């Protein structure tokens, strides 16, 4: 095969593509120096906008720690029970053993959940009043 190519006048270094190469598309990975300042400014403005929307670094979820430090454990438990009660009333997604339960089963489950949360709240508030006496 090599002898056939040599007979046809095809020669080369054997290193690969021997024809003169030109870049297609005109795209350069390095921006020209004239627009480098503008590109840098645009990137900095974009970072500032994104950091205002999405702050970086760790964030503690669950509210203000200053409020929680001034509460007794009983008060904090009562507030947590109240939040769970509001979440149960607001959120329609609950897990059941029987996914094909009737609407009355759903209402009974919701009422028992609300009743249980009120019992926790009442017991927490009663024990809080007993401790304050």
From TrEMBL:
GO terms for cellular component: nucleus. InterPro entries: WLM_dom (IPR013536), WSS1-like_metalloprotease (IPR053000). PROSITE patterns: WLM (PS51397). Residues 1-86 form the WLM domain. One of its GO terms (molecular function) is metallopeptidase activity. GO terms for biological process: DNA repair. This is WLM domain-containing protein. The lineage of its organism: Eukaryota, Viridiplantae, Streptophyta, Embryophyta, Tracheophyta.
């Amino acid at each position: 095969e090599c002898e056939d190519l040599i007979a046809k006048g095809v020669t080369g270094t054997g290193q690969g593509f021997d024809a003169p190469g030109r870049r297609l598309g005109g795209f350069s990975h390095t921006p020209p120096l004239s627009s480098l300042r503008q590109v840098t400014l645009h990137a900095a403005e974009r970072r500032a906008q994104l950091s205002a929307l999405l702050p970086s670094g760790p964030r503690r979820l669950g509210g203000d720690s200053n409020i929680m430090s001034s509460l007794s454990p009983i008060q904090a438990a009562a507030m947590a029970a109240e939040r769970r009660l509001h979440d149960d009333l607001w959120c329609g997604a609950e897990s059941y053993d029987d996914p094909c339960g009737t609407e009355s089963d759903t209402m009974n489950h919701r009422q028992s959940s609300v009743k249980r949360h009120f019992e926790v709240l009442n017991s927490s508030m009663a024990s809080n009043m007993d401790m304050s006496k």
